[in-house]
Design goal:
heterotrimer; A alpha/beta; B mainly alpha; C alpha/beta; A: alpha/beta; 2 domains; about 35% strand; C: alpha/beta; Rossmann fold; 4-stranded antiparallel β-sheet; about 40% helix; about 20% strand
């Protein structure tokens, strides 16, 4: 086979590879474009994070606006300190908003949902959400139910 | 008893000697990499190792994607979660089956071809005559193949995954009746480019290096007879396959934070 | 052994001392050596063989010892190959004649002793110097060793592309000239797999000659060829030597053909030189081993029978083993 033909074919091969990569990036993985927009950090403390993990989503009104980037144990307050990144263009979250740990569906993964409050001041980089609602742990719920039953 | 101990020692020393030779070959071939003028050699090899493996890769990819869809559907339907079929198949293909199976197929098709070719060149004294003319066979024969495998296998793995997902889509959506929107949306939500796809690519790059290295070394080291080449070709396929599977375990362990 | 280097005063001190000591020693031991090795000529008079003016030696092997694993292939081989002559190395199969060519070419390193080519110790020079040296060496391998993925034209052009910067037109002309001289100009676009064995070997010869090398090495050029092809090769080898004046080293065990083209013959066996001389002189050599080799006797110093226990004993033993079958 002539060298030129081979070069063309190999070029096509490499191109096909790049196209595959592009397909995987866009159609299959829902490439995270959030990173380009930039983000700011917000903190919140919870009594119990339940099954919340790093990279879980942060959403407002059911729409994803950010990600959990760190979950650490706060020794001084005996609770969990959660650090999250919110998209820069979502800049109107009032300081008295509530952060709750919710469950997707019935037995899905955990995520943080924010309910906007009434204040006119908005959260900025490094701010803290004080009104938090811990995860609903199934065992505690059953325990409460039994307790109330008797 | 003493005899067995001696055998073990002899075998281990042999193993180390072989590894040493293989390492030396790799080192010399990489650092006497083809000069700019030899890019055409690499291109030629990418054609022979990569392009000619396309057919087997694509066919296998489609089949495996289809099988995953079938089996996956059967299991998920028990929990009412068949809409997650897209997600499941995509993750499995992109992270594991894509890189691993395409590497195994590559070892069987391209790896054995390389071993046989180099072994034959050694037997017919082509390598020796090249040396006599002052051409380093490591630069002209070995290095281009190493580089070609390094580029070709990741591309094959990517295409394997894409075709596999398409195969799963065809079976799942058209035939089994999974909701098309759910199929793709759960997939897009759940598959992360960096953490899933790119890690799969890293795996296939490592596999490409290892499989081609084994293939090239076995050919270069083969006993220059017809039995010797046959044995070398078998060793290539066996060693490459085992290496890929074992490496997959360790790579998965380190890359996916367990 | 006194090599031409010493004569040219290149290595005066230690060389001359050593040479003188060796010559003196050999002179003293001459009668002993003669009877031990059945050598009618002592080694230090090798260069006196030639009637013409003393030419320099293009290849010198000094006491070369080479082992592969446990087997000693060469155990102190010393020989000289003068410039412009055709020297043959002959001997029974398995004496490592191909290994010898590889040692001369620098592909293998002797365990002890030196291989000197064109005045340079081939194992002591740098890679670049070796590259330059190899430009002047052409080797015809036993199997042709053509590159199967290249056409005949590309095969012959290969050394030119590697060692020179000649333009494509120039290379094309050169290749055609070389192919013409071996009679295969019309086959330039064919691939090695499409050629017969004899034709492959001719192409390999064209390739070996591509850069008009000073030294041409032929590894069993006559083996496996039909009479016509063999005649062609013999002609070509002779013509190349005559026309180009190059030094030819022919490794073969074909007595007839080799004797017809060689100026000097070395006979090797068991890792040593057991005989040497001009073809006619060698035919008259009385050493039984050389006689057996030249005449092609099936039995002699190299025995017909592989070592085995006593014949009648072994036959009878079989019968006894069968026990109740045999007759008592």
């Amino acid at each position: 086979m002539q060298m030129r033909t081979i070069e063309i074919v190999v070029g096509a091969f490499m191109l096909a590879g790049l196209i595959s990569l592009a397909i995987l990036a866009t159609r299959i993985s829902g490439f995270n474009v959030n990173s380009e927009a930039g983000s700011y950090t917000v903190y919140a403390s919870f009594e119990n994070v339940g099954g919340l993990v790093v990279r879980s989503k942060v959403s407002i009104a059911g729409v994803e606006v950010g990600q959990i980037t760190e979950i650490t144990y706060d020794k001084n307050n005996y609770d969990a300190r959660v650090k999250m990144e919110i998209d820069s263009d979502v800049d109107n979250i009032s300081v008295d908003s509530t952060a709750s740990i919710l469950t997707e569906g019935l037995i899905g993964g955990k995520y943080v949902g924010l309910s906007i409050g009434a204040e006119e001041d908005f959260l900025g980089n490094g701010d803290e959400i004080f009104d938090t609602q811990s995860a609903i742990v199934l065992e505690e719920l059953i325990g409460q139910f039994l307790l109330n039953q008797f | 008893m003493l005899g067995r101990l001696r055998n073990l020692g002899h075998y281990s020393l042999d193993l180390f000697a072989t590894l040493g030779r293989a390492g030396r070959l790799w080192w010399l071939a990489i650092f006497r990499r083809p000069s700019l003028g030899n890019v055409s050699l690499v291109v030629n090899q990418i054609y022979r190792l990569g392009v000619l493996s396309l057919v087997i890769t694509v066919m296998s990819g489609f089949s495996i994607g289809a099988v995953l869809a079938l089996q996956g559907y059967n299991q998920l339907v028990k929990y009412g979660s068949e809409s997650a079929l897209g997600l499941g198949v995509a993750l499995v293909l992109v992270m594991e089956i894509g890189p691993v199976v395409s590497a195994l197929l590559f070892a069987g098709r391209a790896g054995s071809a390389v071993t046989a070719e180099i072994g034959l060149m050694k037997t017919t004294e082509q390598l020796a005559s090249m040396e006599m003319m002052g051409v380093d066979p490591l630069r002209r024969i070995v290095a281009p193949r190493l580089w070609a495998g390094f580029f070709a296998l990741p591309i094959l793995a990517l295409m394997f995954s894409v075709v596999g997902i398409w195969g799963a889509a065809v079976i799942g959506v058209e035939w089994l009746g999974v909701h098309e929107g759910a199929f793709w949306s759960t997939m897009q939500e759940g598959v992360d480019f960096v953490h899933h796809v790119m890690k799969g690519v890293i795996k296939s790059v490592v596999f490409g290096l290892v499989v081609t290295w084994i293939a090239v070394f076995q050919g270069y080291d083969a006993v220059p007879t017809s039995e010797g080449i046959a044995a070398a070709t078998t060793r290539t396929v066996v060693f490459s396959s085992v290496a890929v599977l074992v490496l997959d375990f360790f790579l998965t362990l380190t890359m996916f934070n367990f | 052994m006194v090599s031409a280097d010493y004569l040219q005063g290149k290595r005066m001190n230690s060389g001359v001392m050593a040479g003188m000591m060796i010559a003196f020693g050999l002179f003293l031991l001459k009668p002993c050596i003669n009877s031990m090795s059945d050598n009618t000529m002592s080694e230090d008079t090798a260069t006196d063989v030639y009637d013409d003016t003393v030419t320099d030696d293009v290849v010198v092997l000094e006491d070369v010892v080479y082992r592969r694993g446990k087997k000693t292939i060469f155990n102190g081989v010393s020989l000289t190959i003068p410039r412009g002559k055709t020297v043959a190395m002959m001997g029974p199969s398995g004496t490592g004649k191909t290994t010898l060519l590889r040692l001369i070419g620098g592909q293998l390193t002797p365990d002890s002793g030196r291989v000197i080519v064109n005045g340079q110790d081939i194992n002591a020079i740098t890679r670049d110097e070796l590259f330059e040296l190899r430009r002047d060496m052409g080797m015809l391998f036993q199997s042709g060793a053509l590159f199967t993925d290249l056409s005949v034209f590309e095969n012959v052009a290969f050394p030119m592309r590697v060692h020179t910067d000649l333009s494509e037109d120039f290379i094309r002309d050169l290749v055609l000239i070389k192919l013409q001289s071996v009679g295969l100009r019309g086959a330039s676009s064919l691939f090695p797999s499409e050629l017969s064995g004899g034709m492959q070997r001719r192409v390999a010869l064209a390739r070996a000659m591509a850069l008009d090398p000073q030294i041409l090495m032929y590894d069993e050029p006559f083996s496996g060829l039909d009479p016509i092809a063999m005649g062609v090769i013999v002609q070509l080898i002779r013509r190349v030597a005559d026309v180009y004046g190059s030094t030819s080293i022919v490794v073969s065990h074909d007595i007839q053909e080799t004797a017809s083209i060689a100026d000097y013959i070395y006979v090797l066996s068991d890792g040593r030189v057991i005989g040497e001389g001009k073809p006619d002189d060698l035919r008259q050599n009385t050493s039984p081993r050389i006689q057996q080799f030249i005449k092609g006797d099936s039995d002699g110093p190299v025995p017909f029978h592989y070592p085995a226990p006593d014949y009648s004993e072994e036959l009878l033993a079989e019968n006894l083993k069968l026990g109740w079958f045999s007759f008592e």
